[in-house]
């Protein structure tokens, strides 16, 4: 039997102490039979990077293909030099900062399900994260200008835009798995009809358009069959009761706080005529609170408190330590993520189609040119090429374009240090707009003060 040829790839992982994306990539590499990867982990927390390097070595031991090699880089420049691919997965601030992003607006009557993309939480998170991503983008331009760059950090649209703003020649995209939820629903529909497991989400093709976490699909295909009629029937069947692949366990915190029965997704599909693709907890934050966020229990989605995220982070850290020191066993198992397929395609392993975030050059006809939008893109040895997606329904395009314009203006203001431009943008967000100006300004002042340690000097007096 001929020994397979593995494609060498050097990956610089910025935020290499990650407890979420990094272990997933390690498991994917261990299960992969295409790549021979060298992974350089760089993190401001050098101890976290060292732990993850040890964890990576454990995954390498159970590889089904060519074992990946893991090392810790002492500087950002060291990690980047000679890299073929750069992965950016950082935490902008601390979970304690995220607690303020959610807790302060809650005192002003503004609930948030996630608080990391739009709304008051997403806005302030972007304020502290944009300079970080701009610094990384500039370093890539200096040390790895030809590398492919995947951003995994939220708020996805704004931060992917920050990479392009810092280094216009960057070969970057933003990666998000939310659309996978819709594709899994379509596979379930097909499997129920067949009475057997005949499809997975990887078999489902969708035409995606929108902005990250507010994505929609107007065409669905499986095995050459148009699945949109079947999906519309599925929506009508479960619109009132909701749908989930597995029952929510009320005793399980993760199930309870991440509950998503797709009732918002189904309602938006009915309202706008095309399928809503992202999860309910994200979709609701793009719309005024009186539509869905005022009644999460009534719409069957959960609000994820930061104290749970802190406990979950501690559990993930304990798991990573156990994997690193050998008291837990790693498993080479493919995740639902597309990143490993994207990397393999870019390294010459054949074409791959994924939904990703890229600046709009016309792939969504009725969203602003230059804004970062989410559509399909083709990955191959030729690079990352956006696929033309078409037009959103006019009413939906108006909502989406409003967010896209605000995200672009926020990015521009932060990079230019234009503190005075920030509050009007903050107040214009649909979750904040109902507050009278004095209250909105007071809330913004509190939020800026709470996160000021992470802000450039020019933005600390933004309120």
UniProtKB/TrEMBL annotation:
<feature type="binding site">
    <location>
        <position position="154"/>
    </location>
    <ligand>
        <name>substrate</name>
    </ligand>
</feature>
<keyword id="KW-0479">Metal-binding</keyword>
<protein>
    <submittedName>
        <fullName>Alpha-galacturonidase</fullName>
        <ecNumber>3.2.1.67</ecNumber>
    </submittedName>
</protein>
<dbReference type="InterPro" id="IPR001088">
    <property type="entry name" value="Glyco_hydro_4"/>
</dbReference>
<dbReference type="InterPro" id="IPR036291">
    <property type="entry name" value="NAD(P)-bd_dom_sf"/>
</dbReference>
<dbReference type="InterPro" id="IPR053715">
    <property type="entry name" value="GH4_Enzyme_sf"/>
</dbReference>
<keyword id="KW-0533">Nickel</keyword>
<feature type="site" description="Increases basicity of active site Tyr">
    <location>
        <position position="116"/>
    </location>
</feature>
<comment type="similarity">
    <text>Belongs to the glycosyl hydrolase 4 family.</text>
</comment>
<keyword id="KW-0520">NAD</keyword>
<dbReference type="GO" id="GO:0046872">
    <property type="term" value="F:metal ion binding"/>
</dbReference>
<keyword id="KW-0326">Glycosidase</keyword>
<dbReference type="GO" id="GO:0016616">
    <property type="term" value="F:oxidoreductase activity, acting on the CH-OH group of donors, NAD or NADP as acceptor"/>
</dbReference>
<feature type="domain" description="Glycosyl hydrolase family 4 C-terminal">
    <location>
        <begin position="208"/>
        <end position="432"/>
    </location>
</feature>
<dbReference type="InterPro" id="IPR015955">
    <property type="entry name" value="Lactate_DH/Glyco_Ohase_4_C"/>
</dbReference>
<feature type="binding site">
    <location>
        <position position="176"/>
    </location>
    <ligand>
        <name>Mn(2+)</name>
    </ligand>
</feature>
<keyword id="KW-0408">Iron</keyword>
<keyword id="KW-0170">Cobalt</keyword>
<dbReference type="InterPro" id="IPR022616">
    <property type="entry name" value="Glyco_hydro_4_C"/>
</dbReference>
<dbReference type="Pfam" id="PF11975">
    <property type="entry name" value="Glyco_hydro_4C"/>
</dbReference>
<keyword id="KW-0119">Carbohydrate metabolism</keyword>
<dbReference type="Pfam" id="PF02056">
    <property type="entry name" value="Glyco_hydro_4"/>
</dbReference>
<dbReference type="GO" id="GO:0047911">
    <property type="term" value="F:galacturan 1,4-alpha-galacturonidase activity"/>
</dbReference>
<dbReference type="GO" id="GO:0005975">
    <property type="term" value="P:carbohydrate metabolic process"/>
</dbReference>
<keyword id="KW-0464">Manganese</keyword>
<feature type="binding site">
    <location>
        <position position="213"/>
    </location>
    <ligand>
        <name>Mn(2+)</name>
    </ligand>
</feature>
<keyword id="KW-0378">Hydrolase</keyword>
């Amino acid at each position: 039997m001929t020994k397979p040829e593995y494609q060498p790839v050097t990956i610089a992982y910025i935020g290499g102490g990650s407890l979420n994306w990094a272990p997933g990539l390690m498991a994917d590499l261990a299960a992969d039979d295409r790549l021979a990867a060298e992974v350089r982990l760089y993190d401001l927390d050098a101890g976290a990077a060292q732990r993850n390097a040890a964890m990576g070595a454990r995954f390498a031991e159970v590889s089904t293909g060519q074992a990946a090699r893991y090392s810790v880089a002492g500087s950002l420049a060291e990690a980047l030099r000679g890299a073929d691919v750069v992965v950016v997965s950082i935490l902008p601030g601390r979970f304690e900062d995220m607690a303020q992003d959610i807790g302060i607006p809650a005192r002003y009557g503004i609930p948030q399900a996630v608080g990391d993309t739009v709304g008051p939480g997403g806005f302030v998170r972007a304020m502290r994260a944009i300079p970080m991503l701009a610094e990384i983008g500039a370093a890539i331009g200096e040390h790895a200008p030809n590398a492919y760059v995947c951003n995994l950090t939220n708020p996805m649209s704004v931060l992917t835009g920050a990479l392009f703003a810092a280094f216009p020649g960057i070969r970057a995209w933003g990666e998000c798995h939310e659309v996978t939820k819709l594709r899994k629903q379509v596979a379930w529909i097909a499997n129920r009809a067949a009475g057997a497991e005949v499809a997975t989400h990887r078999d489902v093709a969708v035409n995606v358009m929108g902005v990250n976490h507010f994505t929609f699909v107007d065409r669905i295909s499986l095995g050459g069959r148009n699945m949109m009629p079947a999906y519309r029937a599925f929506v009508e069947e479960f619109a009132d009761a909701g749908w989930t692949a597995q029952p929510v366990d009320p005793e399980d915190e993760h199930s309870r706080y991440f509950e998503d029965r797709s009732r918002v997704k189904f309602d938006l599909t009915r309202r706008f005529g095309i399928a809503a693709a992202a999860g309910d907890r994200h979709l609701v934050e793009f719309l005024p609170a009186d539509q869905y966020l005022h009644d999460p229990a009534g719409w069957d989605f959960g609000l994820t408190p930061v104290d749970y995220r802190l406990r979950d982070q501690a559990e993930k850290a304990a798991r990573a330590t156990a994997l690193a020191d050998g008291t837990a066993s790693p498993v080479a198992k493919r995740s639902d993520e597309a990143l490993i397929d994207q990397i393999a395609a870019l390294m010459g392993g054949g074409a791959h189609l994924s939904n990703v975030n890229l600046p709009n050059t016309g792939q969504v006809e009725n969203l602003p040119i230059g804004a970062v939008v989410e559509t399909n893109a083709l990955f191959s040895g030729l690079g990352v090429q956006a696929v033309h997606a078409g037009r959103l329904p006019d009413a939906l395009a108006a909502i989406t374009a409003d967010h896209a314009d605000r995200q672009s203006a926020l990015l521009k203001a932060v990079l230019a240090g234009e503190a005075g431009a920030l509050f009007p943008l903050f107040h214009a967000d649909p979750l904040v707009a109902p507050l009278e100006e004095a209250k909105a300004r007071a809330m913004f002042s509190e939020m800026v003060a709470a996160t000021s340690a992470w802000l450039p000097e020019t933005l600390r007096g933004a309120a």
